[in-house]
Specification:
three-stranded antiparallel sheet, 13 helices, five-stranded mixed sheet, single chain, Hect, E3 ligase catalytic domain fold, 4 domains
């Protein structure tokens, strides 16, 4: 294929990628749609003489909601950066269901860099001016169709709730017969055990730890295993272990007492009574005791500048207790890192570790000492602010004497000089140069147990 007159040849001419998407689905259902989409895109690419070198996939992502779709974003970025010339999408509604406005913004950006999106089913090419209007109309139709489907599904579930019928995937602890819930012979005992231990004073993490020690799989793992037994292609579960979140979910779920709920609120009939969907594992009285105990154990605000927050639960709005709370991320699984306390040689130290480990999920990432981590972040942040001037932190000795250092004579960045001792310490930022570091540490920057210095971060 040759470029049109007056148009420069694309740097990635003849190279393309395909975009595959699947809407949000339960954990026990993974259909063959991605394979079908892949086949359609490959056939269209072969017909145009395009070599597919990238694949962008969004499984379990809605195209109607305003959410981040990693596959979609990476595909558009590859087109904008001219890594590929073509992006094949099976249909317009697989690409986006957010309407004409959102699609037109993308197409306008791609036009400037020569990127093209091919919609296989409709046979439309975004680089064709005559196709732009049709693509916009189809995007609007896809949005209207998504809204219509959502309304129908919502009304279906509303009718089922009012009739006391269970039409979803079976909840943990139950079996479904004639759209009514009955306790599972084995799983109901686990639920009963969780409730009894909690009301007996056990902590959520302690309950999860004992369940894991006894080799009992978590609810998602059970549903996953059942789907495999039925021959379904299932989505992989992150872990088969219990976490305190899974335990709390069992305790707070209205279905534990066989009650219908919607948007985390109980559903009531015309008489004002909660609607039941079968035989509960716990009674209404026991559920009330569980909720009261959870409320008693939850932390509440006792003092605050905003008096309206007093008595409410702690959480959003309060200042972080530690420097990197909400910022630090695990380098292995990208989960949030929490500061905790570790004990070594009879002493307690602060450390940041992946929060997913605390929830029982598998993560191969390690921990990092909190003081060193926070110092490093502060130094790097300060170094970026000073830009042309090398930032260097020095230790103020307990006696008040500071470590001597030559004035700055160049803009070459240098890492900090630090010592580890049992004394309380504070830090300040001063200028330094590579020449002064050489004078202090030798001909080349080096590391030692007491000090570290190097020429460039």
């Amino acid at each position: 294929m040759t470029p049109a007159a007056g148009r420069r040849e694309h740097p990635a001419a003849g190279l393309g990628g395909d975009y595959l998407r699947l809407s949000a689905l339960p954990v026990d259902y993974d259909p063959f749609s991605p394979d079908t989409q892949r086949r359609l895109c490959q056939e269209a690419a072969d017909h145009r003489g395009v070599k597919l070198v990238r694949e962008f996939v969004d499984l379990d992502y809605s195209a109607r909601k305003d959410i981040y779709r990693p596959g979609y974003e990476d595909g558009i970025k590859a087109l904008v950066n001219q890594e590929i010339e073509y992006l094949f999408a099976p249909t317009v509604d697989r690409f986006s269901r957010r309407g004409m406005g959102q699609v037109e913004l993308v197409l306008g950006e791609l036009e400037e860099v020569g990127g093209r999106i091919i919609f296989v089913k409709e046979g439309l090419d975004s680089s064709d001016p005559n196709s732009r209007l049709i693509i916009g109309v189809l995007a609007e139709r896809a949005r209207a169709e998504a809204d219509q489907i959502a309304w129908r599904v919502e009304q279906f579930h509303e009718t089922a709730r009012r009739m006391g019928l269970w039409v979803r995937v079976r909840p943990y602890g139950y079996m479904v017969e004639d759209h009514r819930l009955i306790p599972h012979l084995e799983e109901a005992l686990v639920v009963r055990r969780i409730v009894d231990e909690f009301l007996g004073g056990a902590a959520l993490r302690a309950i999860a730890r004992r369940l894991n020690d006894d080799g009992i799989p978590c609810p998602k793992a059970v549903i996953n295993a059942e789907a495999k037994a039925k021959g379904h292609r299932v989505k992989p579960v992150q872990t088969t272990r219990w976490s305190y979140i899974a335990v709390r979910g069992i305790l707070t779920a209205p279905v534990t007492a066989a009650l219908h709920s919607h948007n985390r609120q109980l559903v009531y009939d015309e008489k004002g009574d909660p609607i039941s969907c079968g035989e509960g594992i716990v009674t209404l009285g026991e559920r009330a005791r569980v909720l009261a105990e959870l409320e008693r154990r939850s932390a509440s605000v006792r003092r605050a500048q905003d008096v309206g927050r007093i008595g409410e639960r702690t959480g959003g709005g309060r200042p972080a207790k530690y420097l990197l709370t909400g910022f630090a991320r695990c380098g292995h699984c990208h989960g949030a890192m929490n500061r905790t306390v570790v004990v070594a040689d009879g002493k307690q130290y602060g450390a940041y570790r992946c929060s997913r480990k605390g929830r029982g999920q598998r993560c191969l990432g390690g921990s990092v000492m909190a003081e060193a981590f926070e110092d490093e972040v502060v130094w790097r942040y300060t170094a970026r602010l000073t830009s042309g001037i090398c930032s260097r932190r020095r230790r103020i000795l307990p006696s008040g004497r500071s470590a001597s250092h030559e004035p700055a004579s160049s803009a070459t960045p240098c890492k900090r000089d630090s010592t580890r001792s049992g004394h309380a310490r504070s830090w300040t930022s001063v200028g330094c140069s590579k020449q002064s570091c050489r004078a202090r540490y030798g001909s080349e920057p080096r590391s030692s147990a007491s000090a570290t210095c190097c020429a460039s971060a």
